[in-house]
Amino acid sequence: MQENAELRVINVGLQDFYEALLAQGAKAAQIQWQPPVQQDEDIEELLDKFL
Amino acid sequence: MDIREKIEQANAKAVEAIVDSDPVWIDIQPAGECVEGLEDHMILHSGPPIDYENMVMLHKRGMVSAMLFEGWAKDEQEAVARIRAGEVKIESALDHNTVGAGTGIITKSVAMNVIEDRRSGKRAATFPAEGIRFQGGFCGWGLYSKEIAENLRIMREDIFPIIREMLYKRGGLSIKPILAESMQMGDENHTRQTASDLLFDKQILPDLFKMDRPKEDILRAVRYIVETPRFFHCYGQGAARSALAAAEGTEYSTMVTAVCGNGVEFGIKIAGLPGQWFCTSAPMMEGRYTSSKFTRDDQLPWIGDSCVVECYGMGGLAAAASPIVCNLRGMTNQQAIAQTREMERICISRNHNFPIPALDFDFLPVGIDMRLVLKTGILPAIHGGMFHRDGGLIGAGMARVPMECFQKAMRAFGARYRS
Description:
The structure holds two protein chains of two kinds. Chain A has one domain (8-50). Chain A is 37% helix and 20% strand. Chain A contains two helices and two strands. Chain A has helices spanning 15-23, 41-50, and strands at residues 8-12, 27-31. Chain A is rod-shaped, with a radius of gyration of 18 Å. The mean pLDDT of chain A is 90. Chain B has two domains: 25-235, CATH 3.90.1710.10; 248-417, CATH 3.90.1700.10. Chain B has helices at residues 3-19, 31-34, 57-70, 76-84, 131-134, 137-141, 146-170, 176-183, 194-209, 215-227, 233-247, 308-311, 323-328, 333-344, 370-376, 403-417, and strands spanning 23-30, 42-45, 89-92, 98-99, 111-117, 123-126, 173-174, 256-262, 265-270, 278-281, 286-289, 303-304, 347-356, 362-368, 381-387, 393-400. In chain B, the strands form five sheets. In chain B, strands 4-6-5-1-7 form a five-stranded mixed β-sheet. A four-stranded antiparallel β-sheet of chain B has the order 10-9-8-12, with helices on both faces. In chain B, strand 8 and strand 9 (265-270) form a beta hairpin. The mean pLDDT of chain B is 95. The A-B interface holds A 32, 34, 36-37, 39-40, 42-43, 46-47, 49-51 and B 3-4, 7, 254, 338, 342, 371-372, 374-377, 407, 410-411, 413-414, 417-418.
């Protein structure tokens, strides 16, 4: 990356980081993402059966 | 057919009951005549079933209000004694074909709007707005005074006969076109009905003015309609409730048909598990207060049944339709759109009746599937009014339906359909 190149950021997950970048004048795109949910074992089993 | 296919078919049928519903306002009747199963000496309330002793103050006061209004007790002391002696039945409004907005106090003598889903023939009854002076009084806040009781009688005996006559002459009023058009004009039809109110007025005012009645009587009815904020809210709820009634009892369906709170507990119902409640503690709403003097300590946990509109695909699911409602809570237009896009991930289908400008005329999501909520961890967003612990509206905001409700529902679904 060139020393004076414009910073362009793809932010994955936490919205606050994306907004902080915008506030500092950086170009940024936000990707909505959150870690997969871990349900209790019996619920996971039912989801495997029904979904 | 394997169990997954059965669920997919059932959900397609259940969501069709919403998307293809044809709600029409057909009548105004005493609750005792239009709320199925509403007996003499029975009081309905919002949220999941709850005993009198465990109720929040607003509901307890509502019970007393109902006793006095119906003449079942001469004063508060007698009313409480009769309730504690078990002389009245207390039931959840959503266990009947009605909706408990706010505290949701409903007894046999109050006048109710009747909405019929012409597709299924199912009817729902909803409590009308109480006018600008007493709005939220009897039903919403569970308040009672001689003036509030007198206003209810004026509505029932002086104003509603005129409106009912107008309604009969015009052959009812179709609700869905008003919902559809207002969704393109900034309403999400839970917190905001500004456009719906105007579209409603445009439909019925000419018919009211054509009536062969004394001018002063007509103007009284007109003033009641046009001066009451969010007048249309009860019609949107009636449209939703009548459609959801058609979906209730759809075997194998995992679609959510009710979401509500009583200030203590919060509950959901599932189409394939009719008659069962899945409850946990009522959540607090996040939002904006109407005055800086209010704090979280003043606020009551969620109370009210109005999330029938979210179950119908409006309100929190329709945030993209109403940047104004979201802006009031400090959200940007992009965040409002993102909220609706997020809701798409937990919904069964999209409602082609509601194309939204901010979504480039994409359709709103509809039909919350409890399986998708559990799988994705995305909790349904619900809009609503914030209540003071002592009564009264102190703001508007949003909450998420607690995960525990869906976990309990899934366990019950497993017990019912596993074999």
